[in-house]
From TrEMBL:
Co-factor binding comment: Binds 1 Mg(2+) ion per subunit.
GO molecular function, one term: glutathione binding
Family, similarity comment: Belongs to the eukaryotic GSH synthase family.
Swiss-Prot/TrEMBL keywords: ATP-binding, Glutathione biosynthesis, Ligase, Magnesium, Metal-binding, Nucleotide-binding
Protein name according to UniProt: Glutathione synthetase
Names of required cofactors: Mg(2+)
Pathway: Sulfur metabolism; glutathione biosynthesis; glutathione from L-cysteine and L-glutamate: step 2/2
InterPro entries reported in the protein's UniProt record: Glutathione_synthase, Glutathione_synthase_a-hlx, Glutathione_synthase_C_euk, Glutathione_synthase_N_euk, GSH-S_sub-bd_sf, GSH_synth_subst-bd, PreATP-grasp_dom_sf
Protein's organism: Lasius platythorax
Keyword Magnesium on entry: yes
Amino acid sequence: MHGDKQAIMKLPISLDVSKNELEDVIEKAKDWALMNGMCLRSKMNFNRDVLQFAPFVLFPSPFPREEFQNACDIQITLNTLIHRVAHDYDFLKETLEETIKVDDFTRNLFDIYEIIHEEGAAQKVSLGILRSDLMLDTSCPKKDTKKLKPHCCWKQVEINTIASGFGWLGPVSTQLHKFVLQELGYTAELNNLPENNALQTLCSGMIEAWNLYGNPQAVILFVIEDVTYNICDQRFHEFEIRKQNPNVKVIRRNLTQLAATAKLGTNMELIVNNYTVSVVYYRCGYEPGQYHTKKEWNARLLIERSLAIKCPSIQYHLAGTKKVQQTLAKPGMVARFLKDENMVTKVKEIFTGLYPLDFDEHGNVAVEMGILDPQRFVLKPQREGGCNNLYGTDIKDFLESVKSEQARVAWILMDRIYPPVHKNYVVKPGTNVDLDTKEFVSELGIFGVIIGDDQNIIVNKQGGHMLRTKLAIHNEGGVATGLGACDSPFLID
Ligand code: ADP
Ligand code: MG
């Protein structure tokens, strides 16, 4: 697809609003966002006590209804898949064996996993708050030209098992867009914006885990970064938990604080200051830089050893690595975890080509492919949080430099997805809005909640979504990393 003119997707409403009306609605939308907590702390002018609205696109973005429904429908199966992967010690060990030789971060996680596996987990139940991220694709060879759709299918970008954010910013973006559409007189169109109950679903999952723990005095611990920029997203979870059950208290600590204060009780309870912790919800701990010293790693180990229910537990964290994603795309792998053949086929359809860079014949072929046609791929290390991947000629340069080094096995190569483009206006704090429409592409995230142990799945549900949109010319689009904007889907038929 690259090189060709990209396929276009259109909203069934006009974006040609007069300059005056546009400026007016932009000002209103900014204030709506500020006054409804659709905000972030500023990285540029940091002040804990000040919030800015999160970048957003003014209009919701078109998304095909059928594909949206498919993505929601498959989530429960993806939850099951990840749950089973997380509970297959042999699979995780075999899959990550080569990676952990060269990737220290994954090895540190894996070392904790090994310790827990040998000792036996005090808490067998895990809480998974997952987000499967996907993009519509235009480059699939099976394109059905008769249907005249700008896309052919959708493909999974990745599945997040730790710190799956936007449980608040997702739904509040839908509310903002409803407001904007109403302001412009599009009331009949409002029901094209699907209901988004992400926040309620994720928080009810945490409360269900809290109930399972069975101590009415116990608290939920949010493990947070040293500085939280995406503060509204986290705090609204806390407020929603209180709303759903007024007896549940949330405490927030970073890994360094936990290293100094967290202890294990006589029955392996996690004790932080005077609190017993029932559920640990990580919004941090997915990047090497978040573990400043060995102390923070020890804190993670201590939490894993404890009786608290972890979101995610260490095996869930490992199940979300890019290496696991690539391994699942190999023939026969999904069938190892899902019995229903129909579902296996459906899951495999959402995978793009994923290629290991192991030191063998397949790995060598992948390295050569990447060097020859880098525009076709994205090159990914075992990292989360955005801005770690390589694109275009950087792939070529990097692969040439690591070709004969062991380090290459820490990376995977993935087919690049080229989504259809659509037009919009982007609104960012501190800058004037460009009143010419620009071309954007979007990434949809579908939330899932799963609770269970190695024997049983107790809760398995899909609930809510989020949409992030970036300029079509950009490689990545994280909102927290400053490249993307909050968005919501407008379903089109
Ligand atoms: P992270 O764990 O850092 O979020 P991702 O795999 O989600 O890593 O990649 C980050 C971003 O890079 C995505 O949000 C998307 O914008 C872009 N990206 C990742 N994989 C692809 C792909 N196969 N095709 C096109 N863009 C991709
Ligand atoms: Mg991602």
